Every structure is written in structure tokens, then in C-alpha cells.
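Structure representation:
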Amino acid sequence: MKLPGPWLRGPVEGISDALQPVAHAFIAAREDVVSPLAGLSAAQLWAQPGGAASIGFHLMHMAGSTDRLLTYARGAALTEQQKAAMAAEKTPPEPQPTAEELLKAWDAAVDRALKQIGETKDGELGTPRLVGRAQLPSTVGGLLFHAAEHAARHAGQIVTTAKVVRA
């Protein structure tokens, strides 16, 4: 029996009411990418149909961008390791990561996100934060919500691209 969407399963334990939508979006993005990857070959994982980004890119980017956005939400600067991971998203290392490796990294990123979301107090959501080299203004809440919707967007792209590369 297929489970209903995460938002229809009730509250995520340890997450404030204000941040339930963020947690639900991350859980949905984690679950949504699993079945489209089943049985994909390495060539399909890294294919760029019509010049679109590969499924492999989307998975790497989901994990990396979530990590970076949550770093900004904590008010910290990116580490050299995070900057290197961002560069690797544009040009994946050889050998290219497998679907299993990418899913493991994405799962770990979601686990860290849920932990941070659970530790975030509602009163912190409006706390100003600066993002990127340009130090653009945001807030803790803005970063958390953007990280979740960004992951959801890329999960949808994975679902669609998997259908294209299987055709």
C-alpha cells in the first residue's frame, strides 16, 4: 500500500508547527527520487537529454545546495569543502558517482536538514542572514523554506528526466 504524501501523515516529531511544511517538503523530496532511479544505468543517470541537466547533477546539487543553504541559515560561512563540492556539481568527478552513492548523500543531507529544522526555534525564523559572496539579505526562515522548495523543484526534475531517459 502506497503511503499518502508526508504532509498527510501528521506532524513530524520534534519539528515546530511553523516548520512542519519545511520538514514535509524535505521528506517528500527524499522519497520522490527513489523509484525514478531504480534500474537506471550509469549512462542514463548522467545523460543530458536535449541539453537538460542530468539526474546525477540534480542529486548532487540537491545535497550540496541543501547543505549550503542550511549553513547560511546557521549564520556560518561556507567551508572550503563546501565550495569544492559546489564546483564538483558543475563537473562531476571521475569516476562519476553511482545512483546509490548520490542517494546516500541526499539521504544524509535530509537527515541533517531535519535535525537542524528541529533545533530551530520559531523565534529565530525572522533572524537576518546573509547569503553568498554578494551577502544578499534573507532570514533563517527564508533560507529553510527556500532549501525545501528548491529540493522539491529538483526532485520533480529528476522524476521527469528519468522518464525521458527511459523512453
Observations:
- The mean pLDDT is 96.
- The helical segments are 20-32, 34-37, 42-46, 55-73, 80-90, 99-119, 140-166.
- The first strand starts at residue 128 and ends at 131.
